[in-house]
User: Fold these one by one.
Assistant:
Number 1:
Amino acid sequence: MFKKQYCLVDNNTLASEALAAYFYAFSSEEQLSEALTHRPDGVGCFVLGSGSNVVFASDMDTLVLHNVIQGIDVVDQVDGSVWVKVAGGVLWHSLVLWSIKKGYSGLENLSLIPGTVGAAPIQNIGAYGVELCDVFESLDAIEIKTGRRISLNKGQCDFAYRHSVFKTPAYAGQWVVVSVTLKLCSLKEGVGVEFKTEYGEIEAELARRNIAQLTPELMSNVIVSIRQRKLPDPNVLPNVGSFFKNPIVSTRECRRIKNKFPDLVNYSLSEDKCKLAAGWMIDQLGWKGREDGGAKVHDQQALVLTNVGGGGKAVVDLSKKIQADVKDAFGVFLEPEPLIFI
Ligand SMILES: Cc1cc2nc3c(=O)[nH]c(=O)nc-3n(C[C@H](O)[C@H](O)[C@H](O)COP(=O)(O)OP(=O)(O)OC[C@H]3O[C@@H](n4cnc5c(N)ncnc54)[C@H](O)[C@@H]3O)c2cc1C
């Protein structure tokens, strides 16, 4: 049953009160197929998971299809590897907790990322030195226009930093990811796991807790506590996580900026590419903690913009001012990470 003029406030972590012309939550592929077949004439579709990477700055004149398909199945197990097929509507962090309980490793660094499993490949979610593509095997998706089903393997998804084929014009907004298959390590098989600890504050936190022998559960706990310290809980302060991607520039460009700003935080990606810390640049320009027209830059994390009453539109307006300032000072364009509807 399609809901009409549905308020999306509880379906996006920025708590935008935008209305969807039509809304439909599907809990099976059959229901999705029903919705696609019987959707109101001439209305476009938008696929929504938990709404943690979208900004609704205005109402949506589309049918919003909300993915709540559930299910986690072990589909294969060989030596120390285990293949797990997960339905698109499963919440990402509940999958992480499930995998840890089962004695599987691979997802611990991606603990506490909000959102659904179906959305995870769209921007190749990543955190603390690990990206979805490190454990990704394949996905199944349904084409909105035709109902056609496809499977894509890792190569076909064309993953990169916060990028996949689903961000390109040929695929964007045209497919519903109904399941994702991941390849994890089964610790029960006596496999030695190499944990990624070199990123961010992980090593300092391990030392602080005096942890000598790591397990996926301990690693996940460490990540959760670092994230809870650094990022505001969207249930308390509505936000979409990092609002901007860290820009990738040439090493030459990076040197140019460093000449002017010797403390510039940057990471070398290769001989000729560098990633710049967008949060550092925003902070340098005095934006951290600043409020403007019902939106605010978070007090502790300059990359996070919060809705303090002005809704999605206020957050987008604030983001534009920050973009202009950063461009002016550093000559760098900050690309937004979430999908924005104006
Ligand atoms: C506090 C906070 C912290 C965050 N931290 C991180 C982080 O560390 N790393 C990171 O990478 N991201 C992070 N994010 C962003 C976000 O959690 C991820 O991008 C997540 O994968 C979005 O999932 P979602 O279900 O909320 O997607 P939505 O916001 O609902 O949708 C995002 C995009 O995916 C599309 N989409 C959603 N589901 C499907 C589907 N089944 N099939 C096809 N397309 C689909 C939508 O159409 C839209 O284009 C954070 C967000 C918040 C609020």
Number 2:
Amino acid sequence: MGQDGPQRVAVVTGAASGFGKAIARRFAADGYWVGLLDRNGEAAEAALAELGGPQHGAVLVADVSDEAQMEAAFQVVASRWGRLDVLVNNAAVPQRPTPIEALSSAEWDRIMAVNVKGVFLGMKMAVPLMQANGGGSIINIASVAAIRPRPGLNAYCASKAAVIGLTKAVALELAAAGIRVNCIAPGPADTPMLPGFMADPGSESGRQAFIASVPLGRLIRPEEIAAAAAYLASDEAAAVIGAVISVDGGRHV
Ligand SMILES: NC(=O)c1ccc[n+]([C@@H]2O[C@H](COP(=O)([O-])OP(=O)(O)OC[C@H]3O[C@@H](n4cnc5c(N)ncnc54)[C@H](O)[C@@H]3O)[C@@H](O)[C@H]2O)c1
């Protein structure tokens, strides 16, 4: 990022854990002010302390599926920093493998509310701030599950496919305004979310099955997702619009 321009600002949702924490750390190291948005304020404060403390950013406590809470969080960004350059819509919830006929409507709604409506609300709140800046970069975290599903993860796979569709539609809407919208589709990774996808959470056999599904032969590291986010946020990616970047050790192939 340029040394001479105004300080750049990035908001990362789900920044208290896993990929979001690594992405927030990477943006702070790259010189951004970072809004660590998460519903878990205590864990987000710990993540902020880990990346260097309040001179690098602030915690924004909000549930991404709640419009009023999201509006309030982005108002804090506007009043505190007066601009927004990058939004990473990363917060999501996993799904325990469930046959479609056994899936409750409540579970379907819960997954869609966080994983899809949360991405919609993030973009809805961020776009006016980016328009006021004359541009920006929105990075939505999808999943290889949208491209190469696993049986039983029906609602989760559908939610991530929706993120890809939403990304492409909004990328076209905003391209002329200089706001680039792209996706990262990670593969299975070593984060607290992974056991949430297992029939027997936390079992070694469940973990080994995920590792065996990755041609690279290991789980994806949060820093590898952060590196892709740093690229998509940068001017190096000026012509990258509506893309789905797989960072999955070859799992999608
Ligand atoms: N871990 C994987 O194997 C994997 C693979 C592909 C894609 N992904 C995707 O990557 C992203 C990050 O996953 P992770 O593995 O780092 O997960 P994680 O569970 O480690 O972290 C998720 C964070 O999101 C927050 N969060 C959850 N619901 C929220 C809500 N309603 N409002 C605000 N914050 C909320 C949690 O508090 C947590 O801090 C997700 O979009 C996930 O679907 C993960």
